[in-house]
Amino acid sequence: MLEAEKDQILVSIAVSGDIHQVSEFSRAYHELRSWTAQAKLVEEAQLITGSRSLPASVSLSPAQEREFTASLQSGQDARCLQLIDQALDFMLRKEAGIGQFRFFADSIASRVIYFVEAAQVEPTKIQSLKQWTRGLQDCQCVTDYRQVFRQLLEASCSLLRSKWDAREEPLISKLLKVMQTQYAEDLSLDYLSAKFNLTSTYLSAYIKDKTGLNFSDHMQGIRMEKARELLACTSLTVNEISQQVGYLNITSFNRTFKKVTGITPGAYRKRHWLQSTSQSG
């Protein structure tokens, strides 16, 4: 019956073994919720009777990430969409779980919104973009994801192109590209000043004037956004993630992450896991 109704509704059913004690209900309930997040992104009913192996990571590769950042920043929506399509195809081939698809979609959407906000796009237009990001949580198949990503990226890139065209500031574009691709390094204002043959004082004021944020705020935002993605989409430890986003001291990373998000990295990962299992249940 469920197969006959697949055009109207998609159902994933998780079934546990026999439960003989009331004390076992809570454990079984949470176990089943985690299994439903492992359901495949297929357009058919699924019966899940146990946990399965999932891909370790569902984020963009480092090379894809650099190209996505550069393409998004320059308003090249077609190339952005190609990279997203490649990532979605990879996840399908590796049979990623629906929870992993949602983590991936959330991380990409958050990054897009961050770049649009950094470009100082009007708040009303940003709110419109956030409507698309919320639509990603309702996607039931890969076709849904592709459609919503297309709408989000076409609108976002159009706004970014208009902002850069209005400013006609190639220097700020180059500066942001360095920050968005070399965040894992010990990047400093002095390094950028030397790279672009400018004084630190002038460069600091220039970045603030052109983007509305100072250098340290930009770096913190970029690193924290990447950290959120890695916490949601990979099984890396918090210490490994802190190093990958440019923090050599994990205490400093934990303190900054909590300051920005309001919760610790471990709590953030757990919250995303609970949200995923709730939405897939």
UniProtKB/TrEMBL annotation:
<keyword id="KW-0804">Transcription</keyword>
<keyword id="KW-0238">DNA-binding</keyword>
<dbReference type="InterPro" id="IPR009057">
    <property type="entry name" value="Homeodomain-like_sf"/>
</dbReference>
<protein>
    <submittedName>
        <fullName>Predicted protein</fullName>
    </submittedName>
</protein>
<dbReference type="Pfam" id="PF12833">
    <property type="entry name" value="HTH_18"/>
</dbReference>
<dbReference type="InterPro" id="IPR020449">
    <property type="entry name" value="Tscrpt_reg_AraC-type_HTH"/>
</dbReference>
<dbReference type="GO" id="GO:0043565">
    <property type="term" value="F:sequence-specific DNA binding"/>
</dbReference>
<dbReference type="InterPro" id="IPR018060">
    <property type="entry name" value="HTH_AraC"/>
</dbReference>
<dbReference type="InterPro" id="IPR018062">
    <property type="entry name" value="HTH_AraC-typ_CS"/>
</dbReference>
<keyword id="KW-0805">Transcription regulation</keyword>
<dbReference type="GO" id="GO:0003700">
    <property type="term" value="F:DNA-binding transcription factor activity"/>
</dbReference>
<feature type="domain" description="HTH araC/xylS-type">
    <location>
        <begin position="173"/>
        <end position="271"/>
    </location>
</feature>
